[in-house]
Amino acid sequence: MGFKFKHQGSMGFFKRASFVAFSACVLLGATSCNRLGQRTKDVINSISIKNLSNGRTLLTNEESDVQLTLPAGWVDVQTLRPDADLYVAHEDRTKYVLVLADPKRSEVGTFSLSDNAVSYLSFLDRGLTQERPEKATDMTSLNGLKAVQYEVRGRVDNLPVVYLHTTVEGQTNYYQVVAWTTAEEYAAVKTELQDVIESFRGS
Questions:
Q1: Separation of alpha carbons 68 and 59, rounded Å
Q2: What global pTM score does this model have?
Q3: Confidence class of residue 164 from pLDDT cuts 50, 70 and 90?
Q4: 148 to each of 64, 108, 185, how far by Cα in Å?
Q5: DSSP 3-state percent helix, strand, coil across the chain (nearest 5)
Q6: Residue 127: pLDDT above 90?
Q7: Torsion, Cα of 180, 121, 197, 13 (10° steps)
Q8: Domains of the chain
Q9: Phi, psi (5° rounding) for residue 139?
Q10: In this structure, how many other beta carbons lie within 10 angstroms of the beta carbon of residue 53?
Q11: Rounded CA gap, 160 and 5, in Å?
Q12: Which end of the chain is flanked by fewer CB atoms within 10 Å, N or C?
C-alpha cells in the first residue's frame, strides 16, 4: 500500500517527517555555501507578514525584496529552512513553496537564464531518484520577469514526489521558486501550487 499523508500511524509520521527534512535541505543554489551565520539571522529578521482583506496573506522578505501572496490555509515555515529567502507550506504540511535568491554579482551572474535553470536542477537531481527526465512547462515569464519552469518527478526515501522548479531572472538576482508535493497529491493541488508560484514578486 502506498504512503498517504493522511495516515496517522507512526510509519506515516516518520515518512512525512523524512520528506519534510529532505525537501528543506536538498534545494541548494549556487551560493548555498554562503547561506549561513549572519545571513540566516538577517533573513529571519527581515520577513514581514500582512493579512490582506481578501483572506490572503502577503509574505515579504525586505532584505532580498521578494514576496509571495498565500491563499487561506498557507503559513510561513521559515524555521524549517531559515536560510531560504521565503519558505511556506500548507498548514497540513502536504505542499510547500520555497524561494532562493542568488545575486547576479555572484558566479550565477555569468550564466544565462536557461543555463542557471539547468545548474539549479542538477542540485535537485542529486537528491532524487528520478523516474523520468524533467519536463519543461510553457512558462516564459513570471510577473514581468523572464522565467523557465520544469516539472520534476522522482522518489525520496521511496516516496514519489513532484517538484515545480521555476528559475526567474530579475534585474539584480536570479531566483528559484520551487514548489513540491507527493505524486499522489499533485494532480489535485497543482493549480494551487501554481497560484502561489505566480504570486511571486522580485526585482
A1: 5
A2: 0.82
A3: very high
A4: 20, 16, 23
A5: 30, 35, 35
A6: no
A7: 20
A8: 10-198 (3.40.1000.10)
A9: -70, 130
A10: 5
A11: 12
A12: N
